[in-house]
Write a sequence for this structure.
């Protein structure tokens, strides 16, 4: 069990999203940075879709009521255990009574804390993700508050093997990280002001030639009106070559739509299921982590790739992730 | 066709571009092959466009495709979102990649969707479900009923009479869980949106915006003119079917008294 001493700015339980219910207008929710979410689970020995804690900008203070295997992936929010810095993108075995604290936002803005067995919260419509606006899913349908108690589920065999591997090395310390890391090429480079690869949106051709050029030439700032639903960007105003009303249709994670004021909005995890603004672009799935880690004040620039390239990049990354999964499996079980 | 554009939407939270269609001159010819185009929507979805305008004819095509997907869900499909003129099919790109022996997922999925649509006729349309929604009009539930009446030069009773005598088609669900985009409201009770949207509209409130009527399933901000409230929950997250309404349903509103409203609300909970 994990005790929430301080909740942080916005800490909520998320899995990879609520699928199958968008036809009813129920939004997908889920992790903003699905890649970091999956990696955290992998390193804690969990299933990829298990619920983890998504931590935003200012992290929580948590205490462990029992020995727990965890992993923190995604943005670097200066995590420390009992005052000692703890590395991200590692499996970490923590002794009971330890305190996990987050500090300054050094890189990115969202960290994913997985605990072996996943956080034990009920399924709502097939998912454990928190749908904040409707107050359902996750931990009591809301972000964490001080005094909350998070139960963890039954650890998998893989979690037990990783734990066994780490307990051999812990000695008298209160926590221990695994002594091997993840190939740095696999970890998205979440530097400030990222370049994000996008494909043309379905209504790209309806935009004026000037707007089509500006989209790729100028940087866009992530404004403070940005949240899990979408980022409102500020830059050169984009406009259609002539007024045209759109008929509402489905939108996707990373769709870039442009309302009449000309400031684009990138839709994210808590997006509505459908929208009626013209879509000028679509963020390649492989670059969604970069977007999710961008924070207000950062500037984004967009680079155009084809749909074929975007899918090929996604497939390539998925292959590497599978290799990594195999590698971790062998590493933690090889000795037995 | 009588197409009127509504809504110059105030913010992200409001549905945009709600169009209204009062008459329908088309009847679908059974067996006629569907015209469609396929478009990528990100790396895990293909958008099937079945028409360019909001019409009952296109709506029926959308309904037949979704009925088909519901009955025979392809193994690479994750889910689908129907809208006025489109059905967007979400798929698992890696699964598609594996199933296709290394083809690009979008190409592979399109090659499977094409025969599926081409074989489909408009005969497999499901019968529309008729959903009766009780509404307590006016009073604290419908603070704008008088405005709607005044705006149209009729009495509040006439507004209720007109609103509850219509039959409405749910073209699509979007904006919020179970929020219906409805066509078929009479011009006689049309009313513009409020200049300043309300910050909170209680769940289950029935409103009018332009020539559109709708019901808020969850508490949200909004600029609609509020005319009443239903005791029936539109969003039921713990039920198998989590929303009262779905695309293709026919809606009828039934006026009820405040007493009946409270009684109904108690039995609902």
């Amino acid at each position: 069990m994990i005790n929430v001493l301080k909740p942080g700015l916005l800490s909520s339980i998320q899995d990879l999203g609520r699928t199958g219910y968008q036809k009813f207008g129920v939004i997908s929710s889920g992790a903003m940075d699905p890649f970091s979410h999956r990696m955290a689970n992998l390193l804690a020995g969990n299933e990829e879709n298990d619920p983890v804690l998504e931590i935003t900008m200012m992290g929580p203070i948590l205490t462990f009521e029992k020995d727990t295997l965890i992993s923190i992936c995604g943005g670097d929010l200066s995590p420390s255990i009992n005052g000692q810095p703890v590395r991200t993108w590692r499996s970490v075995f923590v002794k009971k009574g330890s305190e996990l604290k987050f500090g300054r936002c050094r890189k990115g803005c969202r960290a994913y804390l997985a605990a072996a067995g996943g956080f034990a919260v009920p399924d709502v419509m097939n998912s454990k993700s928190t749908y904040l606006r409707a107050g359902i899913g996750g931990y009591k349908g809301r972000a964490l508050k001080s005094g909350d108690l998070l139960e963890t589920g039954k650890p998998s065999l893989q979690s037990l093997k990783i734990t066994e591997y780490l307990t051999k090395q812990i000695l008298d310390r209160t926590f221990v990280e695994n002594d091997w890391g993840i190939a740095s090429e696999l970890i998205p480079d979440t530097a400030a002001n990222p370049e994000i690869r996008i494909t043309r949106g379905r209504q790209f051709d309806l935009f004026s030639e000037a707007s089509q050029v500006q989209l790729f030439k100028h940087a866009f700032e992530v404004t403070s009106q940005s949240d899990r639903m979408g980022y409102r960007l500020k830059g050169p105003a984009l406009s259609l070559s002539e007024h045209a009303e759109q008929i509402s249709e489905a939108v996707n994670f990373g769709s870039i739509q442009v309302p009449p004021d000309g400031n684009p909005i990138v839709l994210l995890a808590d997006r509505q299921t459908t929208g009626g603004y013209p879509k000028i672009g679509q963020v390649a799935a492989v670059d969604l982590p970069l977007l999710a880690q961008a924070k207000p004040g950062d500037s984004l620039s967009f680079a155009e790739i084809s749909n074929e390239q975007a899918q090929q990049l996604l497939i390539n990354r998925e292959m590497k992730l599978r290799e990594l999964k195999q590698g971790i499996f062998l590493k933690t079980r090889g000795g037995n | 066709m009588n197409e009127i554009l509504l809504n110059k939407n105030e913010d992200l939270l409001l549905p945009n571009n709600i169009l209204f269609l009062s008459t329908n001159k088309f009847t679908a010819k059974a067996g006629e092959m569907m015209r469609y185009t396929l478009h990528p929507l990100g790396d895990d979805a293909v958008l099937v466009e079945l028409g360019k305008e909001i019409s009952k004819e296109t709506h029926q095509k959308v309904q037949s495709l979704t009925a088909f997907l519901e009955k025979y869900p392809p193994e690479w499909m994750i889910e689908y979102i129907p809208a006025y003129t489109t059905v967007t099919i979400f798929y698992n790109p890696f699964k598609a990649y594996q199933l296709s022996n290394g083809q690009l997922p979008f190409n592979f999925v399109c090659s499977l969707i094409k025969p599926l649509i081409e074989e489909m006729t408009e005969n497999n349309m499901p019968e529309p479900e008729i959903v009766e929604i009780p509404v307590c009009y006016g009073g604290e539930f419908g603070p704008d009923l008088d405005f709607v009446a005044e705006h149209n030069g009729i009495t509040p009773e006439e507004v209720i009479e007109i609103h509850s005598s219509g039959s409405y088609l749910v073209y699509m669900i979007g904006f919020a869980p179970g929020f219906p985009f409805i066509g078929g409201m009479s011009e006689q009770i049309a009313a513009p949106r409020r200049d300043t949207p309300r910050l909170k509209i209680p769940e289950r409130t029935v409103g009018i915006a332009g020539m559109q009527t709708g019901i808020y399933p969850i508490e949200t901000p909004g600029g609609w003119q509020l005319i009443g409230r239903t005791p029936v929950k539109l969003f039921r997250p713990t039920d198998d079917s989590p929303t009262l309404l779905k695309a293709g349903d026919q809606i009828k509103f039934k006026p009820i008294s405040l007493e009946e409203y409270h009684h109904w609300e108690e039995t609902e909970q």
